Amino acid sequence: MLKASVNMHEAKSNLSRLVERVEAGEEIVIARNGEPVARLVPVEHRHPAEGYGIWAGRVRLPKDLDEADSVIARDFYELDPEDPLLAPRPRRRR
Fold it and tell me: Could you tell me which of 1, 6, 14, 64 has the C-alpha nearest to residue 36?
């Protein structure tokens, strides 16, 4: 990566040109009275997460949605006889 240094006045006057140079891969150091105070560097592009909200990128749907429907139906509607939440409640005596 090429480095170049410009003074504050030049940076203010030519910001759009400096940004074009940065987009081309150059790093620009901005100096005030000969002292470096800031750097213009290209932004690293990240791939956006799939989906939206707090589960973005964490939950993925299968490509075959018919298969997903059958898995969801099995998980939600098949009763497990060993599940204590599904056992009948004992009746209270009065």
Answer: 6
Instruction: For residue 19, give both structure tokens.
Output: 């940004």
Distance of CA 33 to the CA centre of its chain: 39
pLDDT digits (tens, 9 = 90+) for 32-88: 999 999 999 998 876 665 556 776 766 666 677 677 777 776 777 666 667 666 666
Q: Which helix (H) or strand (E) holds 23?
A: helix 15-23
CA atoms within 13 A on the CB side of 14: 15
Q: What is the three-class DSSP state of 79?
A: coil
- For the chain, helix (H) and strand (E) counts, in that order, are 3, 3
32: phi then psi, degrees, rounded to nearest 5: -120, 120
Q: Look at residues 48, 50, 68 and name the one whose alpha carbon lies nearest to residue 59.
A: 50
C-beta neighbour count of 25 within 10 angstroms: 10
